[in-house]
Amino acid sequence: MIKRAFLPLLLLTSGLASAADLTEMEIRWLSAGAAVLSYAKQDLKLPIDITVQPQSGPNDVPLALGYDKGRCKLVLSMRGNPNAEDILNNVAPAQRPLMIEAMVAHEIGHCWRYAQGVWHVLPAGFEASQGQSNSTPHEAAADQLRDTRREEGYADLVALAWIQQRHPDQYATVATWMRQVRAPSPAAGSHSTLNWLQLAPTGAAFTPGLPVFEQASLVWRQGLLQEQ
Which helix (H) or strand (E) holds 51? Predict the structure, then answer.
């Protein structure tokens, strides 16, 4: 059942009249991510809205994040989507809420970058190579793919930093699953983040005592250095 303390927050941000407007799958996913969403909204004051699509499209993933008019949009596309939970097929039922929690933390990592105004922006001290006026369409597309992959790598590290902070005994399980999900494949594209995940094989990669976004950023910078 969805956590009672989170129910008013869910209804406020989603615009739904009641929990009865949610499907069983949507409730399970939002319940699993409740701690992340509560932290993001109540502690960090991130501008997050929850959007439930009435009908998913053929290429929709079950959980995604967008940004519009200064607000993050956490979008659930599960209705009419027979493959919504395929990503959890190889996960034991008892561990699925943990993996969903990591996925929600990943999306909140994206929200943080948007809210800070640094989406596709490198940290200070790193030189951006894109933006040449004489770039070919192929080079421009390659730059866009690289920038998006960097953001996905950062968000994956936020997810792992969150798990290390909240569920350190489960870190190895989640990290192994994420590496399996991100394993190289023709369809991986912008989500080919294995090089980032390999920087955090254990929770010891993250600096304790810092906010998860800063912990992730320190490891992320190591990956950026390797690109140079």
Answer: strand 48-52
Cα atoms found within 13 Å of the Cα of residue 178, Cβ hemisphere only: 35
Residue 91 near residue 97 (C-beta atoms within 8 A): no
Instruction: Provide the pairing of β-strand 48-52 with 63-68.
Output: unpaired
Give the DSSP H or E segment for 66: strand 63-68
Nearest 5°: the CA angle 225, 186, 137 is 65
Cβ neighbours, 10 Å, residue 131: 8
Domain locations along the chain: 4-87, 120-227
The number of C-alpha atoms within 13 Å of 113 and in the hemisphere containing its C-beta is: 28
How far is it, in rounded angstroms, from Cα 205 to Cα 218?
9
Per-residue confidence in pLDDT tens, the chain, 228 aa: 344 444 444 544 444 444 558 899 999 999 999 999 999 999 999 999 998 999 998 889 999 999 999 999 999 999 999 999 999 999 999 999 999 999 999 999 999 999 999 999 999 888 765 545 556 877 777 888 889 999 999 999 999 999 999 999 999 999 999 999 988 654 456 567 999 999 999 999 999 999 999 999 999 999 999 886
Q: What is the pTM of this model?
A: 0.88
Q: Is 49 exposed, middle or buried (0-12, 13-18, 19+ CB in 10 A)?
A: middle
Phi-psi domain of 45 (left: phi exceeds 0; alpha: psi -120 through 50; beta: other)? left
If one counts every other C-beta atom within 10 angstroms of the C-beta of residue 206, the result is: 24
